[in-house]
């Protein structure tokens, strides 16, 4: 009888892509993905370390997986496994810790442990520094059919070293997937029926700079736009100063989804400088307003960090006022988390937790109002919806519009997850799901008799 597996994912879309890749490799090696509620024989927990809280949640997820499945082989991998393997290796009944350096070896490791039936008395640790020349995309098996909106990681690592960020330690230097491999993966997704794909990376705007000859993200996307039959593309996150006129033009043509997630982090220039961010608040504002002028119904989202060391009341007020005045669709707000080994870890002026909590709440309130206003502005507008699957209610389906609005809509006919349907945003209350109404299908052509 075939062994079953399950993959638990914490963190970003890059982790999501890598979890899908691991699942594809495990399936190719004869394992079967466990059904919901079925105890798996093999579990991979793909961890995150972007904040201290994320690391804690990762350890909790590992312990919970072991507790719920005492007979399973459990392996921890991901960024927390890469940066702090010791905090995981001591967890009782954990079989192995595989850093990002060994993520592509997990399927082989699973086969070995499951075949031997021997559980090591203490977790095995597989972790090396990330190789500079190692291209992202491994394992290279195309990830198809796993999600309604599959994710493709085209870049990994980061050279920016923002003062608060530990991700370069977890991911290594920036490395780009070859353009031919990007095109091959996207063609495979299209052939499998995917109508939307999400391009992601740790610092996706740095794509191509390490290649020989060097290239850039705009050139890659322009080339892809000339290939027939590719799914519509969505960029997961992009540094604001790396949004080029060419990328904006591809969104205007409909090749890219009109959705841009542009990390802000702070609306105060002094804090931005301490963070090591390569733009000013005025430059960020000009970029967001430029998107709004070119694409009035594009969704622009922002990351905002509160409580960075030295963030005075005035500095926080600058952030508050900036996001209030900009045409943003939503905010991702999170408190500063001191990460050992970063420049910000030893900076003076730590902010009290209760202050960070209040500031987080204030920004999240603004985010809620921004989201509601953006949704209201779309009422009556047409939308091309990527079907994500059925809702719990009969004949009600869930989907995502090109400008990143989660909607529910009615369809008596069954729909294929990952397909595109046309509709309009319906009026409705500010609270609750956004509703859409599907356009009727075109009439069947009359047949001459």
In the CATH hierarchy, what is the architecture of the largest domain at level 2?
A: Alpha-Beta Horseshoe
Q: Tell me the total number of β-strands.
A: 18
Task: For the record, give the distance between the C-alpha atoms at the N and C termini, rounded to a whole number.
Answer: 58 Å
Query: What is the mean predicted local confidence, pLDDT?
Result: 91
Helix content: 25-40%
- Indicate the CATH class of the largest domain: Alpha Beta
Number of helices: 13
Query: What number of structural domains do the residues give?
Result: 3
Described by strand count, sense and barrel closure, the largest sheet is:
6 strands, parallel
Question: Could you say what the CATH topology of the largest domain is called?
Answer: pyruvate-formate lyase- activating enzyme
**Proportion of residues in β-strands:** 15-25%
**CA gyration radius, whole angstroms:** 23 Å
Shape: globular
| Poorly predicted residue ranges | none
Can you tell me the CATH superfamily of the largest domain?
tm_1862 like domain
């Amino acid at each position: 009888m075939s062994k079953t597996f399950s993959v638990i994912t914490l963190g970003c879309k890059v982790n999501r892509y890598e979890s899908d890749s691991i699942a594809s490799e495990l399936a190719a090696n004869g394992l079967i993905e466990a059904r919901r509620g079925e105890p798996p024989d093999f579990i991979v927990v793909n961890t995150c370390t972007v904040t201290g809280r994320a690391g804690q949640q990762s350890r909790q997820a590992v312990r919970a997986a072991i507790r719920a499945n005492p007979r399973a082989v459990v392996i921890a991998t991901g960024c927390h496994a890469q940066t702090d393997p010791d905090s995981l290796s001591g967890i009782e009944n954990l079989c192995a810790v595989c850093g990002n350096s060994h993520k592509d070896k997990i399927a082989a490791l699973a086969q070995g442990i499951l075949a031997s039936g021997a559980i090591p008395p203490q977790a095995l640790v597989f972790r090396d520094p990330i190789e500079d020349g190692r291209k992202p995309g491994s394992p290279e098996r195309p990830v198809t059919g796993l999600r309604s909106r599959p994710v493709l990681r085209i870049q990994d690592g980061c050279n920016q070293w923002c003062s608060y960020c530990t991700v370069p330690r977890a991911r290594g230097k920036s490395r780009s997937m070859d353009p031919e491999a990007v095109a091959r993966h996207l063609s495979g997704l299209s052939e499998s029926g995917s109508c939307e794909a999400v391009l992601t990376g740790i610092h996706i705007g740095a794509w191509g700079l390490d290649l020989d000859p060097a290239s850039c993200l705009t050139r890659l996307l322009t080339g892809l736009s000339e290939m027939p039959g590719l799914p519509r593309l969505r960029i997961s996150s992009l540094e604001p100063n790396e949004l080029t006129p060419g990328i904006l033009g591809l969104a205007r043509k409909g090749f890219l989804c009109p959705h841009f997630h542009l990390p802000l982090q702070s609306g105060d220039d002094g804090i931005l400088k301490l963070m090591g961010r390569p733009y000013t608040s005025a430059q960020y504002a000009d970029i967001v307003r430029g998107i709004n002028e070119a694409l009035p119904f594009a969704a622009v989202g922002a990351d905002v960090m509160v409580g960075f060391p030295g963030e005075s009341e005035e500095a926080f007020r600058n952030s508050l006022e900036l996001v209030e005045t900009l045409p943003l669709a939503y905010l991702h707000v999170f408190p500063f988390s001191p990460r050992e080994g970063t420049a910000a870890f030893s900076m003076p002026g730590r902010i009290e937790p209760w202050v960070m909590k209040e500031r987080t709440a204030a920004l999240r309130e603004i985010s809620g109002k921004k989201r509601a206003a953006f949704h209201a502005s779309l009422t009556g507008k047409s939308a091309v919806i990527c079907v994500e699957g059925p809702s719990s209610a009969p004949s009600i389906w869930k989907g995502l519009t090109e400008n990143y609005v989660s909607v529910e809509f009615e369809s008596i006919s069954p729909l294929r997850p990952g397909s595109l349907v046309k509709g309009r945003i319906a009026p409705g209350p500010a609270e609750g799901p956004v509703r859409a109404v599907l356009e009727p299908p075109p009439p069947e052509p009359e047949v001459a008799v």
